[in-house]
Amino acid sequence: MPKIKTHKATAKRFVITKNKKIKQRKCGQDHFNARDTGKAGRIKKRDIDISKSFHKTIKELVQGF
Predict the structure, then answer these.
(1) CA–CA separation, 31 and 8 (whole Å)
(2) d(CA 11, CA 44)
(3) CB of 47 within 8 A of CB of 27?
């Protein structure tokens, strides 16, 4: 059975943690940050969890199975 290659665009956006959770960087944090309050800036820097329905698809793309 041939090994499927890792989907590089997906691998750059998602991280699989040690406990098998999938994290994604929150979008909209690259520019226009000076006008935000400090609280909004801190919230933008957090990672978000992915819903369970996407776990199988993302694992296959990132790990290349």
Answers:
(1) 24
(2) 20
(3) no
pLDDT of residue 26: 82
**Nearest-angstrom CA–CA distance, 59 and 11:** 9
* pLDDT tens readout for residues 12-44: 999 988 988 899 988 878 888 899 999 988 888
Read off the tokens for 58.
Answer: 């993302």
The pTM (predicted TM-score) of the whole model is 0.69
DSSP-assigned letter for residue 35: T
State how beta strands 14-16 and 47-49 pair. Answer: unpaired
Q: Phi, psi (5° rounding) for residue 55?
A: -60, -50
- What are the residue ranges spanned by the domains of the chain? 8-63
Q: Which residue has the tokens 């790990």?
A: 63
The hierarchical CATH code for the domain 8-63 is 4.10.410.60
